[in-house]
Amino acid sequence: ADALLILTDADAVYLNWGKENQRPLCQATPDLLKEMQFDAGSMGPKISACCRFVTDCNGIAGIGSLQDGSAILSGEKGTLIRN
């Protein structure tokens, strides 16, 4: 597979989720994401799976809402993870 797409109720991965300064993360690398903290009960496992896929399969991965599936992989919506 060239791509992994995880569809969820959130429209993207957010930095500072639930705080006044929260902001969506549009693009990231596995190395960047490994330096950040995400909830183990929600976004953490999704990000870990995407990072493993990108690193092990040399592909791309995206996380976002069900309605934005094709736009996530093109980088228009959601969060796109690649090396």
From TrEMBL:
Organism superkingdom: Bacteria
GO CC, any one term: cytosol
One Gene Ontology term of the molecular function aspect: carbamate kinase activity
EC number: 2.7.2.2
Keywords attached to this entry: Kinase, Transferase
Single GO biological process annotation from the record: L-arginine deiminase pathway
Residues spanning the signal sequence: none
Enzyme class, UniProt record, top EC level: transferase
Protein name: Carbamate kinase
